[in-house]
Amino acid sequence: MAELPTFLSARDVGSFAYLTIKDRMPQILTKAIDTLHRHKSEFFEKHGEEGVEAEKKAISLLSKLRNELQTDKPIILLVDKCVDTDIWNQYLEYQQSLLSESDGKPRWFFSSWLFVECYMYRRIHEAIIQSPPIHDFDVFKESKDENFFESQESIAMLCSYLQQLPRPLKDLEENQLKDELFKLLQVSLWGNKCDLSLSGGESSSQKTNVISSLEDLKPFIIVNDMECLWSLLSKCKKTSEKAAVVRVDIVLDNSGFELITDLILADFLLSSELATEIHFHGKMIPWFVSDVTVHDFNWTIEQVKHSNHELMSTCGVNWENYIKIGRWIYHDHIFWTLPHSYCAMPQVASDLYAELQKACLIFFKGDLNYRKLAGDRKWGFTVPFHQALSGFHPAPLCSIRTLKAELQVGLRPGQAEQLMASEPTWLTTGKFGVFQFDGPL
Ligand SMILES: O=P(O)(O)OC[C@H]1O[C@](O)(CO)[C@@H](O)[C@@H]1O
Ligand SMILES: [Mn+2]
């Protein structure tokens, strides 16, 4: 078998991986430290002196982590006792085994970018859980919620759009159904521009009317497999008249505006009867600043339900009901916050792989999911997506992602060169997006 390309890494000085580790990651740690500082009196009110001591401990652990990163110290084993600690430590040993003797230990600016970036978020978690009684504090919660509140107008607009579609949706004429599906898929794509990790934790909310921007944004979709999604979903719908379940899974990315766009899409899939069940997958610990945890998921639905905006609150009521009747199912699994590429899933998390195999279609939202799908390796731009997945084929799948890392496969010959010439930063600003499908139709 041909050798796999090497991992993206900060070893390439000046690369996006290098700049992320050098600038963005310390900035995120500083912001986390600052958040803890600002909550000092809240910790005191809740837990007395013990709360203040815990805040100091968490801050000192995070400062130590920032120092290790900035001085390129060896990556050290985790010391907590969580369900995933051993798997993490084994993975660290595996990273060590990839190095030759003269390379020494895995280090921040030397190892794989995916590994060290995931490791930083896992160490942030370790610092917090080692600091009881504030062990369940989410240092990123505030910024996630801010993103939600700052996007209120766009959220209300999207909810109104969905509620005002001609009902019942299942009676829409085929072409109209397809057209609406494509619109809401694109809304979910551009929702991925709003992550907080790329902006170093700074606000990145949505303030414009997304639906009316879709036409202008179309030229920025550089791989567009939406037709495959339509073929697959309409075929599933036809067969579902006999079979009972058409299951669509959404591997979520960010909370705030992006999550709303995913929930709107999920609602549309159910109401139009293109799917009968939606399974969401979120993170078990705070992750890459803005990623959805179960708390964010429940909080968001509560907020939408209690909105003063009538059509928004109708959405919230419906969403809560979908959960109650079991047509929306939320899952979390430690695998999503491990550093492994998805091709390792059958070995590392066979239960999750078996769960995903039940889906008719899986959407993977966002940039980090794309990196893990493609193993965060330096693939050529024209390498087929199927090949970059390296054997990960649980069910037909589609990445819905705006580009925020120097990694893209499945382009036409010459396409990358053209993009590079017209827009040198095309890979990393989130301005371009893909719907990239893999699977039999
Ligand atoms: O929320 P997303 O779309 O997965 O993006 C996460 C971001 O974090 C990064 O991993 C860099 O910190 C980028 O790849 C990406 O910009
Ligand atoms: Mn994210």
Automatic annotation (TrEMBL):
Residues 20-419 form the Damage-control phosphatase ARMT1-like metal-binding domain. Its cofactor is Mn(2+); Ni(2+). One of its GO terms (molecular function) is enzyme binding. Keywords: Hydrolase, Manganese, Metal-binding, Methyltransferase, Nickel, S-adenosyl-L-methionine, Transferase. Its EC number is 2.1.1.-, 3.1.3.-. It comes from the Eukaryota. The keyword Ion transport does not apply. One of its GO terms (cellular component) is nucleus. It catalyses: L-glutamyl-[protein] + S-adenosyl-L-methionine = [protein]-L-glutamate 5-O-methyl ester + S-adenosyl-L-homocysteine; beta-D-fructose 1-phosphate + H2O = D-fructose + phosphate; beta-D-fructose 6-phosphate = dihydroxyacetone + D-glyceraldehyde 3-phosphate. The keyword Cytoplasm does not apply. GO terms for biological process: DNA damage response; methylation. InterPro entries: ARMT-1-like_metal-bd_sf (IPR036075), ARMT1 (IPR039763), ARMT1-like_metal-bd (IPR002791). Belongs to the damage-control phosphatase family. Sugar phosphate phosphatase III subfamily. PANTHER family: DAMAGE-CONTROL PHOSPHATASE ARMT1. Subfamily III proteins have a conserved RTxK motif about 40-50 residues from the C-terminus; the threonine may be replaced by serine or cysteine. Metal-dependent phosphatase that shows phosphatase activity against several substrates, including fructose-1-phosphate and fructose-6-phosphate. Its preference for fructose-1-phosphate, a strong glycating agent that causes DNA damage rather than a canonical yeast metabolite, suggests a damage-control function in hexose phosphate metabolism. Has also been shown to have O-methyltransferase activity that methylates glutamate residues of target proteins to form gamma-glutamyl methyl ester residues. Possibly methylates PCNA, suggesting it is involved in the DNA damage response. This is Sugar phosphate phosphatase. The lineage of its organism: Eukaryota, Metazoa, Chordata, Craniata, Vertebrata. The gene is Armt1.
